[in-house]
Design a protein that fits this description.
Elements lengths: L1 H28 L2 H21 L15 H28 L8 H14 L5 H29 L3 H24 L9 H18 L2
Helix pairs in contact: 1-2, 1-7, 2-3, 2-7, 3-4, 3-5, 4-5, 5-6, 6-7
Length: 207
C-alpha cells in the first residue's frame, strides 16, 4: 500500500506538471484544446483527491471544514462540464456528423447552472438534482463516445474511449471488493482515474 501511495504521489505530481505545461502551451499557441485539457486535468485530480479522502489538504492547501461541502458540490458539478467541453474540442468535426447530439449542449448548460448554484444549495438538495441528472447524462455521453469511436477509428478516439472505460471498470472492481468477492491493497477507482487521465493525455497529444 505504501508503494502504491508513492506511485500515486508521483503520478499526481506528473499530472499537475502536465496541467501546468498544457496551460502554458495553450497560452503560447492560443490552442483551446490544451487550455481545456489543463482545466480537465485539475478537475479530475480534484475528484481523485475526494475519492482518496485527502481533499481537505489537496496540494498542501488546507480547506476549512465549513467550506468543504460547498467545494465538493462544485467539483462534482464541474466534472461533467470539464469532460464535455474537452470532448467537443477534441472531436467536434466528428460529432457534427452524428445524429442524436442535440441534447449535448443543454446537458452541459444544466450542469453549468448547477455548478453556479452549488455553493448555496443544501447538500441534500444538490445530490437530489445531481445524481438523477448524472444517471441520465452518463449513458448518453457513453453512447456518443461509442458513436465517435465507430465513426472515426483513429488512435485518439480509441484512447479516449479506453480512458472512459478505465474508471468504469475500476469502479466495478471496487464494488466487487466491497462485496467480499476480492481483496485489494488499494482503491481501484483511484488507479482507474489516473490511468484514464494518462489515456486522455494520449488522446489530446495524438499518440
Amino acid at each position: 500500500a505504501q508503494s502504491f501511495d508513492r506511485i500515486g504521489g508521483a503520478l499526481l505530481g506528473a499530472m499537475l506538471l502536465l496541467s501546468a505545461v498544457s496551460l502554458l502551451v495553450s497560452i503560447r499557441n492560443r490552442d483551446i484544446v490544451y487550455l481545456l485539457f489543463s482545466f480537465w486535468t485539475l478537475v479530475t485530480l480534484r475528484l481523485a483527491a475526494i475519492n482518496a479522502g485527502f481533499d481537505l489538504t489537496w496540494l498542501g492547501l488546507p480547506v476549512e471544514s465549513s467550506a468543504a461541502p460547498a467545494l465538493l458540490r462544485v467539483t462534482l458539478a464541474m466534472n461533467p462540464i470539464a469532460n464535455g467541453v474537452l470532448f467537443i474540442a477534441l472531436f467536434d468535426k466528428v460529432i457534427r456528423k452524428l445524429p442524436h447530439t442535440e441534447f449535448f449542449w443543454p446537458d452541459l448548460l444544466a450542469f453549468g447552472a448547477l455548478a453556479v448554484v452549488a455553493p448555496i444549495l443544501s447538500h441534500e438538495t444538490f445530490l437530489a438534482v445531481f445524481w438523477p441528472s448524472t444517471a441520465v447524462a452518463v449513458p448518453y455521453f457513453l453512447y456518443l463516445i461509442v458513436r465517435v469511436v465507430r465513426a472515426d477509428r483513429s488512435r485518439s478516439t480509441l484512447l479516449y474511449g479506453l480512458a472512459w472505460a478505465s474508471p468504469l471498470v475500476a469502479a466495478l472492481v471496487d464494488i466487487l471488493a466491497k462485496s467480499g468477492l476480492g481483496g485489494f491493497p488499494f482503491s481501484a477507482i483511484q488507479l482507474g482515474i489516473l490511468v484514464g487521465a494518462l489515456l486522455t493525455t494520449g488522446a489530446v497529444a495524438g499518440w
